[in-house]
Amino acid sequence: MRCRIFILLATVLLAGFSMPASAVESRGPLSSAGSLVQETSLGDLVADSVREAYGAQAALVPGGGLREINIASGKVESADVLQALQYRDDPIIVVEITGSQIVKALERSVSISPQRNLGFLQVSGISFEFTPRGSSRVSAVSVAGEAVSGSKRYKVAMTAALANGDYGYFTVWGGPLKSAANGQAIAQAVTKFLSGRSTIDYRSQNRILRL
Predict the structure, then answer these.
(1) Full-prediction pTM beyond 0.90?
(2) What is the pLDDT tens value at each position of the chain, 211 positions in all?
(3) Residue 111 has what DSSP assignment?
(4) b/e string for 11-47 if b means 16 or more Cβ within 10 A?
């Protein structure tokens, strides 16, 4: 009898120690549904992971790189979030681009709103407003907490596909962007981001406001 109790206690203790280090408590549900037309909580999380991977001022992640999934609030493991990534091995690169290029990229992002757009950008370190009508749709752009300056150069992290001009962004960059740092896969960045936290809260980030 004592032996059975000991085995049971050992099993419970081992189960407790088996929780992955990258398991976090999410205070709200996470979703990537609608990432082709609007800001999403998982889009915010992935973009934050990309930005933090290289200490960039901002990050851009195309919605076309995300699968539509939903994760309930509570314990979330990195494996749950990684299901949202279409291309887990897509490397992250860091580039220096001007504020004007950032604004042009955001204009491209919302250019066919409210239609679904694989190039709709999930952002980190950036906030802006937009209207779904007109030739100049984007306004109130801020980068790293300050109003964007057209001539200033910013350190921006993004997926290699986006930097190479995919989703039509070659018209914004004028060709493939040169990278200041690269190599870390987006899946690795997400896993590392989550492993450094015990709780996350992606409710009401309001980085992208549609007017």
Answers:
(1) no
(2) 544 444 444 443 434 433 344 689 999 999 999 999 999 999 999 999 999 999 999 999 999 999 999 999 999 999 999 999 999 999 999 999 999 999 999 999 999 999 999 999 999 999 999 998 888 999 999 999 999 999 999 999 999 999 999 999 999 998 888 776 667 999 999 999 999 899 999 998 999 999 9
(3) T
(4) eeeeeeeeeeebebebeeebbbbebbbbbbbbbbbbb
**What angle do the packed helices 41-53 and 186-195 form, to 10 degrees?**
100
Q: 10 Å Cβ neighbour count for 5?
A: 9
DSSP string computed for 45-87 = HHHHHHHHHTT-SEEEEEGGGB---EE-SEEE-HHHHHTTBS-
Amino acid making up residue 92: I
Q: Are strands 146-147 and 153-159 parallel, antiparallel or unpaired?
A: unpaired
Cβ within 8 Å of residue 94, ≥6 positions away: 54, 56, 155, 156, 157, 179, 180, 181, 182
CATH number among 3.90.780.10, 3.90.226.10, 3.90.1150.10, 3.40.190.10, domain 20-210 = 3.90.780.10
